[in-house]
Amino acid sequence: FSPGAQISLLIPGVDPAASGLPPVNDVARSLDAASSLILLDADTGERVLAWAELDSHAEDPARQLLLILPARSLAEGHRHVVALRALVDRASDPIEPAASFRALRDGVPTSNPAIEARRPAMERVFADLEAAGVPRSDLFLAWDFTVASQRNLSERPLHIRDDAFAPP
């Protein structure tokens, strides 16, 4: 993933304001202990400033993405955790997590090999969040990703440059 990428996901009917997601004019709210949005640098254990908003370019409200935007570039080569909790819809009704995520979050065994294969990685995500003071029982959704390293980001363009300027 790019250090400057936005994080996008579809949560039909989510109301960012009613859910308490930090808006662009109050990104500091993402650092609050009770924030509905947690963006965590798992390598340092520090929260990252971020805000969330609905995609204003979506033509169909049912397909309107929730955009999570870090307030600064993410650390190259670091693993990051994204977590959402206490989400509500436009009628202020709680939005329930997917059954597959609930099974992972709540430690409920399933007969689905794909879910069971994800369990060890998700336990690491839950442990990172617990260490940051975010209990797993509150989570609507959580996942992790690793940002590309400096070498990964620069090696190919530098090779192309060097090849272009090499003597014939």
Give a description of the structure.
The protein has helices at residues 99-106, 113-131, 150-165; strands at 7-9, 37-41, 46-47, 50-54, 66-70, 79-85, 139-146. By secondary structure, it is an alpha+beta fold. The strands form two sheets. It has a four-stranded antiparallel β-sheet with strand order 3-2-6-7. The model has no long low-confidence stretch (mean pLDDT 91).
List strands and helices in order, with pairings.
Layout lengths: L6 E3 L27 E5 L4 E2 L2 E5 L11 E5 L8 E7 L13 H8 L6 H19 L7 E8 L3 H16 L3
Antiparallel strand pairs: 1-5, 2-3, 2-6, 4-5, 6-7
Provide keyphrases for this structure.
alpha+beta
- Secondary structure tally, helices: 3
Calculate Rg over CA atoms. 18 Å
- Principal-axis shape equals globular
Give a quick account of the main beta sheet: strands, pairing sense, barrel closure.
Answer: 4 strands, antiparallel
Average predicted confidence as pLDDT: 91
Distance between the termini: 35 Å
Name the helix and strand elements from N-terminus to C-terminus, one letter apiece: EEEEEEHHEH
Number of strands: 7
* Helix fraction bin: 25-40%
Strand order across the largest sheet: 3-2-6-7
Class per helix and strand makeup: alpha+beta
Low-confidence stretches: none
Strand content: 15-25%
The gist of it:
With 168 residues, the chain is α+β, with helices and mostly antiparallel strands.
